[in-house]
Specification:
The complex is a heterodimer.
Chain A lengths: L5 H24 L17 H6 L3 H34 L5 H13 L2 H14 L6 H26 L2 H9 L4 H30 L4 H4 L7 H11 L3 H24 L2 H6 L7
Chain B lengths: L13 H29 L3 E3 L3 E3 L5 H8 L1 H33 L3 H12 L6 H12 L5 H8 L13 H25 L3 H9 L4 H29 L3 H7 L6 H12 L2 H34 L1
Antiparallel strand pairs in B: 1-2
The chains are: A mainly alpha, B mainly alpha.
Chain lengths: ~270, ~300
């Protein structure tokens, strides 16, 4: 394979700087010892990280986000695994339409979903309730859960199941002892990717969230709308740190390109 | 395809498949299709400051959204921003994906993580980063540009379309890199080597071999970026401020500040329809073009 020339390396360096600059600057400003927005010039300080503890709305929003992400992703997987098995294994009329419907939250702008959920939940009395938020997040993380389980269900070796059946295993035993363990990597990565999507979502959530059940990104967004101070940078830096750790784990566990691009078709 | 074979005679084919997907289907009908239909209906309702939402069927909101110059300007701005962001991400992202693809083992993985990783980092945090970088006339970006001698005086970035375009390009660049990267994975490196061994220069190889094979990735990435840029919310809201409205921030205002839900619903539904039209149109064009090229 040929190597990248100096022009390519220079271009690449600029892109990397472009991608990292805003993230790095947030993390740097978060360590400022001053009482205003500034790059730390006279040493690093943790005062703005300690300050987060004094703002219960950020701490509360953080836990709302964690619970919401964990629960909505788990529920999404619970529904996505059987759906993925159906789509991966059976040819039936409406299969394509079903898959398109399940992936549609990726195509519909989140602002439109936000508007629709707000109207719907208000009408059925779920407005401002955690249950509404949970349903909304379940739907928007569902495509990610489905895609990864689908990839592992389509890629798994059916011979193992057939061997188990021929040895007299029941349907339930095959599912529990063969199928689910084989697609487990897809399920775990699907849950993790779904969790990250839920944890980051702001556009749709800002419509559905209400005081008391605001997620962290929504709380940060509303805070920034009023004013930008070092506090919100330290909150952002913490969010970035959590995401980066999750990202590295996912990369090790599953491979980031495989996670985002989807399972590559194996050559026949 | 392997999945075509139904290998378990004990299971009843289509009926089992529908049973397995039924729970998810029920949720999707109840929480996606019904709310979207309700929103479309809502856009025809009337609204008044004191009477609230009146469930009648009138075209008032649609007439206002389609004819009022304020809305036209806002939609033109939304799509102008989306188009610029699409162009910028294509020009930056396609070469970057190619460069990444040619890297050697440890670097390839590391830089793929660096470029694609931000995709999973909160949009609010990343946009905050741009707000800090722009930060008035003494912002880092302006000082850097002036230091490089590219500009004489400071450029306004905050509360301008320029700033929104720069920040959105950053937010959406990974999607384009991802799409081109996926396309390049299917390319056989030997074709490039063959062209070189037959005497093709570097630029000829790029233009005649690499670009045509990467193009489907660039186009599908561009469609994704365009759709996401046109419906972006947090970035235009933070960088653009309250004055520089785009479709998503306007819908938000109508719903949560003015409380004119029917009008907000009309804006959202129109955005959805416009995007669907653009995406279907582009897909049709691309398919026609590539059907000809590869048949």
């Amino acid at each position: 394979m040929r190597r990248n020339g100096p022009v390519a390396i220079a271009f690449h360096t600029l892109i990397v700087v472009f991608m990292l600059a805003p993230i790095v600057v947030v993390c740097l400003v978060a360590f400022t010892p001053e009482g205003y927005l500034s790059l730390p010039s006279s040493g690093f300080s943790l005062r703005w990280f300690r300050a987060i503890g004094r703002y219960p709305e950020f701490v509360g929003a953080f836990w709302t986000s964690i619970w919401l992400g964990a629960l909505s992703s788990a529920l999404a997987l619970l529904l996505a695994v059987p759906a993925a098995l159906a789509i991966a294994r059976y040819r039936f009329r409406g299969r394509e339409a079903l898959a398109a419907l399940f992936l549609s939250p990726l195509m519909i702008p989140h602002v439109v979903l936000g508007v629709a959920f707000l109207r719907f939940f208000t009408q059925i009395g779920l407005g401002g309730r955690f249950a509404g938020l949970l349903l909304a997040h379940l739907v928007i993380v569902f495509p990610f859960a489905l895609r990864l389980t689908l990839a592992s269900a389509a890629g798994m070796d059916r011979a193992m199941e057939q061997a188990a059946i021929s040895l007299g295993a029941s349907d339930w035993a095959v599912l529990r002892r063969i199928t689910l363990p084989l697609i487990a990597p897809g399920i775990v990565s699907g849950w993790a990717l779904a969790f990250i999507q839920s944890f980051d979502e702001v556009t749709m959530t800002v419509f559905v969230a209400a005081p008391g059940i605001e997620t962290l990104p929504v709380r940060m967004f509303l805070y920034i709308q009023d004013n930008i101070d070092p506090l919100v940078t330290s909150v952002s830096a913490s969010v970035i740190a959590v995401t980066v750790v999750a990202l590295i784990c996912l990369d090790r566990l599953y491979g980031l390109d495989r996670l985002l691009v989807g399972e590559r078709q194996r050559e026949p | 395809m392997r999945s075509g074979k139904v290998s378990r005679p004990s299971l009843g084919g289509a009926r089992v498949a529908w049973l397995l997907s039924l729970p998810a289907l029920a949720i999707f009908v109840a929480v996606v299709i019904v709310p979207l239909a309700m929103t479309a209906l809502l856009s025809f309702h009337d609204w008044g400051q004191y009477k609230g939402i009146e469930p009648v069927l009138i075209l008032k909101n649609w007439r206002e959204v389609l004819t009022d110059p304020y809305f036209r300007e806002m939609f033109v701005r939304t799509f102008r921003i989306a188009l610029l962001v699409t162009l910028i991400t294509a020009l930056l992202g396609a070469p970057e994906a190619y460069i990444l693809n040619r890297m050697r083992s440890p670097w390839r993985g590391i830089f793929l993580l660096v470029i694609l990783g931000p995709l999973l980092i909160s949009v609010v945090a990343r946009t905050l980063g741009w707000a800090l970088l722009f930060g008035g006339s003494s912002g880092v970006v302006n000082r850097a540009l002036m230091g490089l001698g590219l500009i004489k005086g400071p450029l306004p970035f905050m509360f301008t379309e320029t700033g929104v375009v720069v920040a959105l390009s950053h937010v959406l660049l990974p999607f384009l890199v991802l799409a081109v990267w996926a396309a390049l994975q299917r390319v056989d490196v030997q074709v490039e080597n063959a062209a070189t061994s037959l005497g093709a220069g570097h630029l000829t190889v790029l233009r005649r071999i690499v670009l045509p094979q990467a193009m489907p990735g660039v186009l599908s990435g561009a469609i994704i970026v365009f759709a996401l840029a046109a419906s972006a919310f947090a970035t235009p809201a933070i960088i653009g401020g309250r004055r520089l409205k785009v479709a998503a921030t306007l819908a938000y205002d109508e719903f949560l500040n003015t409380l004119n839900w029917p009008l907000g619903a009309a804006v959202a539904v129109l955005l959805l329809l416009a995007l669907v039209a653009v995406i279907l149109g582009c897909n049709a064009l691309i398919e026609r073009r590539y059907a000809e090229a590869f048949r």
